Amino acid sequence: MSEYSAGRSGFPPAYLDRVGSSFTDFLAAAAPDLLPGRRPVPQLPVGDVTPHGTTIVSVTYDGGVLMGGDRRATMGNLISSRDIEKVYPADAWSVIGIAGAAGIAIEMVRLYQVELEHYEKIEGLTLSLDGKANRLAQMIRGNLGAALQGLAVVPLFAGFDLDAAPGTTPGRIFSYDVTGGNYEERGYAAVGSGSLFARNSLKKTWRPGLDGDAATRSLVEALYDAADDDSATGGPDPVRRLYPIVYRVDAEGAVRLTDDEVAAVAKIITDERAAAEGQG
Amino acid sequence: MTMPYYASPEQLMRDKSEYARKGIARGRSVAVVTYADGVLFIAENPSSTLHKVGELYDRIGFAAVGRYSEFESLRVAGVRLADVRGYSYNRRDVTGRVIANAYAQTLGEVFTQQLKPFEVELCVAEVGDTPETDQLYRLTFDGSVVDEPDFVVMGGQAEAVSANLREHFLPGMGLAEALRVGVQALSAVSPATSAGNGGPSLLSAEQLEVAVLDRRRPKRAFRRITGAALRPLLDRQEESAAVGGEEPHTAAHSPSVPQPGTPAGLGEPSAPDSGGTAGSGGEAPTT
């Protein structure tokens, strides 16, 4: 009988005994084998034989926050996926993007999504945005051993702060390092192999108080610049109709922009650059 | 050490049942009613934080009566089971039946093994893609599980509320109509209304906890209806009650011919009360 289905005698004791509203804490007691951080760490570096996700960019704007990611995953010098999705809604008001070892990262995102929903169902309340950011830091911390063997996972977290004080921007961005360090970013942030180029691009195009359309353009352009200079970041791909994934989080919640919307923005950028005689 | 008196197993079970029944009947009632777009939960509950109704999973809801601490720990266990299963398999692999079975086993075990049985009665409701696939499981303190059609009433004067609902329930009612029927049935026996110690004839929004599992919602079907959203729905029903008196039902609410796949006795326009509580499934064996 597996640990995670009710046995003949109903709920195993851990289901009824412990009080707590964290799904991860509960799994640690009831089914620790399901947690990503509880597995033995590989003895040799395995970074080159697992797919790695690359660049994620997030920017704030006057009504909230945007997050986007390119569609490429690499394995050593190979492209292992052209259509991977690396930005996900974490709950109704926040999004998470991941760079690093794709397998562990996607597992972590799933766990994190359940964690937030679980808390919501048990407590009847949504965690505060800072609480959500903190919880994610704890998950990353648990992965440090694997990170040192080439399986680092570095997320970017952004959300709409329902408790934001008047006059402050409700869209907030949090970045992380492999040790679980949690830093709130001002205005914009990028992680992954192309983040250096994306940040440089944002430095020139992003300004405080941009509206939604201008911020979307700024974000897609940053991803384009990252793809221009970083081999592990994919650019817009009109041949296969693959475009960056972009989520917008505003007072209405998190929504994914349609491929057509992103394609239109990407086309404007590529057309402008082509018009500049390829010097853009 | 004192020797316990001998008591026959029958006597023990009878005593436990009586104890649990009394505890459950002391509280206020909860009605779980199916309507056109899903399942409606109505609880008489003056507290806005100590819920009797909750979300278990995407399409699955929970309602309970009895001792709060006991059903709350069962609710948490249900959420955990659903989330662990959904996480380790897939979200689609979490069904109301699995959770209802776990509750039945746990309640049955507590009832037979522990000195004090749980004083709770639960309902696990699941909405499907069509009204025919909606499921209501009623779980009693001894671990019996019954798959009920149409509606479930638990706690307080459940018999009286049930009889009232049986008279007025029609399959395929809209949300406002189902709420009207449910609130009217709960109000008829509530001590907080004119049926009890004087006061208004119907329970107000502050005395009610209302939630729905709405099959039209994309992922998580559960939604609480509180405050600003609940009051207009209740006002509408007071008006219709004032205008239409005791005969608000029109043919529009009942299908002129039974829907395909409707069990015999349901959806008969000439016999609106035929869709009562005739349990379709037998009682599951208790452990």
UniProtKB/TrEMBL annotation, chain A:
Keywords: Autocatalytic cleavage, Cytoplasm, Hydrolase, Protease, Proteasome, Threonine protease, Zymogen. It is an enzyme of class 3 (hydrolase). GO terms for molecular function: threonine-type endopeptidase activity. It comes from Geodermatophilus siccatus. NCBIfam families: 20S_bact_beta. The active site is at 54 (nucleophile). GO terms for biological process: modification-dependent protein catabolic process; proteasomal protein catabolic process. Residues 1-53 form a propeptide. The 20S proteasome core is composed of 14 alpha and 14 beta subunits that assemble into four stacked heptameric rings, resulting in a barrel-shaped structure. The two inner rings, each composed of seven catalytic beta subunits, are sandwiched by two outer rings, each composed of seven alpha subunits. The catalytic chamber with the active sites is on the inside of the barrel. Has a gated structure, the ends of the cylinder being occluded by the N-termini of the alpha-subunits. Is capped by the proteasome-associated ATPase, ARC. GO terms for cellular component: cytoplasm; proteasome core complex, beta-subunit complex. Its main location: cytoplasm. This is Proteasome subunit beta. InterPro entries: Ntn_hydrolases_N, Proteasome_sua/b, Proteasome_suB-type, PSB_actinobac. It catalyses: Cleavage of peptide bonds with very broad specificity. HAMAP family: Proteasome_B_B. Pathway: Protein degradation; proteasomal Pup-dependent pathway.
UniProtKB/TrEMBL annotation, chain B:
The keyword Cytoplasm applies. Residues 276-287 have a biased composition (Gly residues). Pathway: Protein degradation; proteasomal Pup-dependent pathway. Gene3D superfamilies: Glutamine Phosphoribosylpyrophosphate, subunit 1, domain 1. It is found in: Cytoplasm. SUPFAM superfamilies: N-terminal nucleophile aminohydrolases (Ntn hydrolases). Keywords: Cytoplasm, Proteasome. The formation of the proteasomal ATPase ARC-20S proteasome complex, likely via the docking of the C-termini of ARC into the intersubunit pockets in the alpha-rings, may trigger opening of the gate for substrate entry. Interconversion between the open-gate and close-gate conformations leads to a dynamic regulation of the 20S proteasome proteolysis activity. Transmembrane segments: none annotated. Pfam families: Proteasome (PF00227). GO terms for molecular function: threonine-type endopeptidase activity. One of its GO terms (biological process) is proteasomal protein catabolic process. InterPro entries: Ntn_hydrolases_N, Proteasome_alpha-type, Proteasome_asu_bac, Proteasome_sua/b. The keyword Cytoplasm applies. CDD domains: proteasome_protease_HslV. GO terms for cellular component: cytoplasm; proteasome core complex, alpha-subunit complex. NCBIfam families: 20S_bact_alpha. Belongs to the peptidase T1A family. Component of the proteasome core, a large protease complex with broad specificity involved in protein degradation. The 20S proteasome core is composed of 14 alpha and 14 beta subunits that assemble into four stacked heptameric rings, resulting in a barrel-shaped structure. The two inner rings, each composed of seven catalytic beta subunits, are sandwiched by two outer rings, each composed of seven alpha subunits. The catalytic chamber with the active sites is on the inside of the barrel. Has a gated structure, the ends of the cylinder being occluded by the N-termini of the alpha-subunits. Is capped by the proteasome-associated ATPase, ARC. This is Proteasome subunit alpha. It comes from Geodermatophilus siccatus. The lineage of its organism: Bacteria, Bacillati, Actinomycetota, Actinomycetes, Geodermatophilales.
